[in-house]
Write a structure and sequence with these properties.
Layout lengths: L13 H61 L2 H27 L9 E3 L2 E5 L6 H10 L3 E2 L5 H14 L3 E6 L8 E2 L24 E7 L2 E6 L5 E7 L5 H8 L11
Parallel strand pairs: 4-8
Antiparallel strand pairs: 1-2, 2-8, 3-8, 4-5, 4-6, 6-7
């Protein structure tokens, strides 16, 4: 009985083994290994940029939503009507307030100061003495005439605070050393104490009086200085007078 033998695989030669290995390497790396590596790297790249993409997307959506809301609000007729109604109410209130202020009794014009029944105004510009007299007359007043110690102290304080040399309505133009106010009344002896030491000295034809420092000084009437006007206050009720005098403008208000 003859033994049947299965055919044996022939051993591969070196060349055949090399071809098989090369063939396997070409198949597996190309079809599996290389493509897996490439796909992995692509996926990792996408995941790495995901936060930035999400952030940009969120910002875009938020911006679009905000614009849509603003457009909707601007087109809302109800909001526009409410705003217009509020503006009309405010305008009416201001008109009524202005009318009420105009009806108030003011003892002194705006930019004048009330003191003991009189109104005073000190300028911000400068003129010579004669032009200062005219400036006060043009507003229905006089270049200030001082009649009491209280009035003198008040005016001297205001002049000192403003650091201004200001004309008063006193001169000896008609007769040397005979000082008279612009209304023709003489300077009372009780007020002569307010001349500064050594004044009036009439140096260089100094015939007009000014507030200077803590007292009075005579100077040339042609010199340009500030001036103070005075006139009687308007007649108001007691309540109105006290109310408005408490909010009177300072003496150094703006001048014409």
């Amino acid at each position: 009985m003859s033994d049947s033998k299965e055919p044996r695989a022939q051993p591969l030669g070196l060349l055949e083994e090399e071809e098989l290995i090369t063939s396997g390497m070409n198949f597996f790396p190309r079809d599996f290994g290389f493509r897996q590596t490439r796909g992995y790297k692509s996926l990792a790249g996408c995941l790495g940029h995901a936060p930035m993409v999400l952030l940009l997307l969120s910002f875009t959506l938020f911006t679009g939503l905000l614009v849509a809301i603003l457009i909707q609000v601007s087109k809302n007729p109800s909001s526009q009507r409410q705003e217009q109604s509020m503006q009309e109410e405010i305008s009416q209130d201001l008109t009524q307030l202005k009318a009420a202020v105009e009806r108030l009794c003011r003892p002194c014009p705006w930019e004048w100061t009330f003191f003991q029944g009189n109104c005073y105004f000190i300028s911000n510009s400068q003129r010579n003495w004669h032009d200062s007299v005219t400036a006060c007359q043009e507003v229905g007043a006089q270049l200030v005439i001082i009649k009491s110690d209280e009035e003198q102290n008040f005016l001297q304080l205001q002049s000192s605070r403003s650091n201004r040399l200001a004309w008063m309505g006193l001169s000896d133009l008609h007769e040397e050393n005979t000082w008279q106010w612009v209304d023709g009344s003489p300077l009372s002896p009780s007020l002569r104490q307010y001349w500064n030491q050594g004044e009036p000295n009439n140096i260089g034809e100094e015939d007009c009086a000014e507030f200077n420092g803590n007292g009075w000084n005579d100077d040339r009437c042609s010199a340009a200085k500030f001036w103070i006007c005075k006139k009687s206050a308007a007649s108001c009720s007691k309540d109105e007078g006290w109310l408005l005098s408490s909010v009177s403008a300072p003496l150094t208000a703006h001048a014409a």
